[in-house]
Amino acid sequence: MSWSFSNDKPIFQQLVDIITLKIISGEYPAGSKLEAVRELAVVAGVNPNTMQRALTQIESTGLIFTKRGDGRYVTEDEEKITEAKTDYASGKVRLFIESLKALGLNDEEILKAVNNELGR
Amino acid sequence: MDNILECANLSKIYKNAIALSGVNLQIKKGRIVGLLGPNGSGKTTLIKLANGLLTPTMGDILIDGKPIGVETKKIVSYLPDHNFLTGWMTVNQMIEYFSDFYSDFNPDRADKMLESLGIDRTKKIKTLSKGTKEKVALILVMSREAELYLLDEPIAGVDPATRDYILRTIIANYNENATIIISTHLIADVEQILSDVVFINHGDIVLCDTVDNIRENEGKSVDELFREVFRC
Asked: Tell me: the pLDDT tens digits for A10-54?
């Protein structure tokens, strides 16, 4: 997951998505320490205030937490990460189904196509 | 004092042209602000008023609550839109000169940036390419520990890779309470590092908002909005 941004969404929102994906994919492992806001901002090439806002937002979902006087860490709660992964997958699948339905495929055809790809 | 820069009914009239007409503007501490507008919209006039190179025809401009003068110049670091370096000096001499002139100049910071950009410090300024001169100028300006940086077209003449490096350097070096005002046409390049934008046209502020608000409310980037607002 790279730090690249699209034009149509606020940058902090995109940062939330990118960092969440980095946690889901294990690039930022459970229990690991995150870099300081300023360093993360430099790596991502964004304003530190924007990075701060994104991290605060992710914190409110419980995927990361702050140890006072020490910094931010990825949650140690694997269940929480799995939950975020499931949420992410459902979102993607929903979009995918919508796009195929828009082309006129029905449930059965979609399911068949997916099974074919998965080799079942 | 939350505002580093305040303009109240600020106007500047040249002999036969109105450069700024009744500008009201507040810029908070700790922000990176893009001052955006087409050519001749009043960007450079506003910046020159803020560092005392011009005096207002009408209205007030305050920096950190004080009128422009010695005290405000101490905390303002200004990058002009033209070359201000002394041609016969070497890069090293230029660094010493700035170090001597500004008490908030941090030579370590300058060393680091010169090194990562691979600039030969023993060369005379006049022998450097246009882009390298711009890099040296920006390094000098950003090596001060100022409270307000006024950067007039800071990245216009450098290649995209250096542009990225410079923008990262700006983020890495500015202190959280310092404010940076960047005037530029290269919106897409700087948009990610801006917290706020000010659109200026014919000497008037036409829009002043945060980048996140613009993207959220308009569903488009600042670059796209600019092209729409200033369509020719």
From this structure: 999 999 999 999 999 999 999 999 999 989 999 999 999 899 999
Q: Give chain A positions within 8 Å (CB) of B176.
A: 48
| Domains identified in chain B and CATH numbers | 3-229 (3.40.50.300)
Segments making up each domain of chain A, as ranges: 11-76, 79-118
**B179-183/B196-201 β-pairing:** unpaired
Instruction: Work out the mean pLDDT of chain B and round it to a whole number.
Output: 91
ipTM over 0.85: no
Q: SS3 for B212?
A: helix
Specify whether the CB–CB gap between B11 and B172 falls below 8 A: no
Name every chain B residue with its beta carbon within 8 A of the beta carbon of A45.
164, 167-168, 171, 192-193
Q: How far is B160 from chain A (nearest CA, A)?
A: 14
Query: What whole-number distance in Å separates Cα of residue A19 and Cα of residue A14?
Result: 9
Q: Which residue has the tokens 């700790």?
A: B30
Residue B173 has pLDDT above 90, yes or no: no
Beta bridge pairs of residue B11:
B58
CATH 1.10.10.10 fits A11-76, yes or no: yes
Q: A48-61 and A11-24 helices cross at what angle (nearest 10)?
A: 50
